[in-house]
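Notes on consecutive records. When two proteins share a document, each keeps its own sequence and its own token line. Never mix them. Below: protein one.
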Amino acid sequence: MPRLISEVDPRALGERIKRFPRGAWLVAEALAAPRYTAAYISHLEKGKRTASPEAIEHIAAKLGVEIDQLMTGREPRRRLQLQLEVDSGVASLRPPRGS
């Protein structure tokens, strides 16, 4: 996983779980099944529990998002865009070859 679970604020993760569109059909029971309970999902949404790596993987799959997106709130393309910007900035700092 891109980040350590211990680095993820449970309240922020809970807000992201609630924020991702689920559609009317994906209530807590459906989001939890078959591995977890609706109560567990509810505790995560309220920031009262720290999610295990397996739970984050499960929830991300059910929500149809990348694990990193669930953990950070950033869209997957945003990470690539930021990396390209950093690489471009680093390249512009290098002296031209032959100088």
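Protein two starts on the next line and is unrelated to protein one.
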Amino acid sequence: MASKLTKKSMQNEPDRNPDPITDAPGAHPVGVGIGAAAGGAAAGAAAGAVAGPAGVVVGAAIGAIAGGYAGKAAAEAIDPTAESAYWRENYSKRPYYDPEADYEDYEPAYRYGWESRQRYPEQRFEDVESDLEAGWEEVQPTSQLGWPKARHATRDAWERIDQSAWQKSETPGQASHKPR
């Protein structure tokens, strides 16, 4: 039986990112959900094309499970606690920093950047920027930043994820290329 999540356990292990239901470490509900939705849609469409309407239902269920695992794997590459701590420490050192804004204004833009990088793993920031701008209005209620200012923080977090992923995958002696 899973232990109950307590404030004390969170203080003792703040970076374990526990599952809210099972208290298991390494929960990434956003990544799992995104993966499940994408996998389910793709599998459902493929099955539906072959097996008709019943195949869509079965394909969506199987695809959601497989997609959920894929989404969890992608999400595990990003530790929201570590990202938030990094940006809290460094936001005021960035070239776009405005002394009139505090971390709480920038934080939604950073979060939006690292979460968006997961949603668009094979695309460049420039390719999805118009979608990100449109989506910013939905996620920015806690920020005083409009898109022109939030854009810089969002892109900064996006590129930090790219750089982190690149550094993890690069092996000694391998030719270096710039990540997408």
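For the record: DSSP finds seven helices and no strands in the chain.
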